[in-house]
Structures are given as structure tokens and as C-alpha cells.
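User: Hey, quick favor. My workstation is busy. Could you predict this chain's structure for me?
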Amino acid sequence: MPKFRSELIELLPRLRRFAMALANSSADADDLVQSAVERALKHQRSWKEGTRLDSWMYKIVQNLWIDEVRSRRRRADPIEAAAQIVGEDGRDVTSVRIDLAAAKRAMAALPEEQRLVLTLVVLDGMSYQDAADTLDVPIGTIMSRLARARTAIASRLSSELPQKAQKQWSN
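Assistant: No problem, here it is.
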């Protein structure tokens, strides 16, 4: 199934974002994606061509994470800073890093169900319906979780960011 493998490879960045939203740790997210890909390759015959590979893979990642949480019975590590910012002005680079760190802390502080919805809809660009199908919840639940996540992030950022940055975020 060469088509299956090529579609799976294209899906890897999205799977990693989703795994990061679940695990809150880049190392755990990488392990989770690797396990999910192994499982998908092992069971690729159970995927029906013509159906959404991304939804199938998200479900595998989510189920593996649930299994991992149950087996470890511990909280995930904080999100590691992974972005590299290149700029000419040191003040701008520092300001962007401060904003990025605040946004990561705000996202990490969200409950898991809100982090997942935010990742799927905002970062991955899924429609509300696709996110609802992926997480197996009603579309109204997606909408309310997303609204609560956005409100929580805005509130946290407004208390953390310097006044100058607050003005930028509010514009």
C-alpha cells in the first residue's frame, strides 16, 4: 500500500502537534507518534481506503496516550521550548520569545480536552465537524471547548504579557 505510506508520512507533522497537545512534552509526543505509526503499519489492512486516514491516526494516538497515562499514573512533563526564532533585532527576538513562552504556558495550563480541540481546530485547521468526528463528541462540545480555551488563554496572556504586548494581542 504505497499510497497509505505516503499519506502517513504527510500526516506526521499534524500527528506530532496532536501528540504534543496530549503529552505536553516533546519527548513523550515523539514516542507517541512513533508508537502510533508502528501500530498503523502493523494494522494498515484494517484501515479502509476512502476513509479519513487522519481521523484514524488521531484515534490511534489518543488511545495510545490513554493507555500510557493509565500505565504511568503520572502527569506529563511541561511543554519544552521548541521554537527557534531568527531575527535581526535582539529586543524583538527576546520579545517574541517571551510572548511564545507565555502562549505555551497558557496552552499547557488548559485542561486536556480544551488543548486537544485548540490543537485540532486552530493549529491543524480542522473544521469543527472533523474535530468532533475525530474526538467522537458533538460539534457543540467542540465549539464550547474552543470558546473556553480561547477565553482562558486570552485571560492568562493578559495577566502575563507586558503592557506593550497586551496592546498588540488586543489589536
